[in-house]
Design a protein that fits this description.
Order of helices and strands: EEEEEEHEEEEEE
Largest sheet: 5 strands, antiparallel
Strand order of the largest sheet: 1-4-11-7-8
Distance between the termini: 30 Å
CATH architecture: Sandwich
CATH class: Mainly Beta
Radius of gyration: 15 Å
Number of strands: 12
CATH topology: Jelly Rolls
Number of helices: 1
Number of domains: 1
Helix content: under 10%
Strand content: over 45%
CATH superfamily: Galactose-binding domain-like
Amino acid sequence: MNIEQRSNLIKNGDFSSGKIGEMPTGWSKVLPRQVIAPSFSLVETKRGRRALMATGNGRDACFGYASRQLHLDAQQAYRLKVKFRCENLEDLNQHLVHGIFGPGFNNGIFSYEREGDQIVGENSFSTYDQSVDVAIRLYFRFSPNGKVW
């Protein structure tokens, strides 16, 4: 079985479940300071699909992230891939972080390419000798007027 045929290990990783206007089912938002918090919500796109949208709040220091817990087995290879659209983001690596964070384990996506009208980023990584519980985090930061979905 090739990697494209495997199922998504991130439950509701496609954001298909949840109430429009709220967080997707199983995802939470982490907003360390309410005064600089971006907005996160489930939206329906023009193409009829669901997406998680993050928008700036008008402040340069805008900061927060969406998170989902995930268990990774020991000595396995994984791939994290994102597809999105955005507006008013000058530098993707400054404004967005797509990462996996856990005890002794941190990795993420650091480069992106345009594919048609979408932006795609991916990275492959391997786990160590022990399984690990991690958090998938989708950061939105330092973009007062940006929008990503």
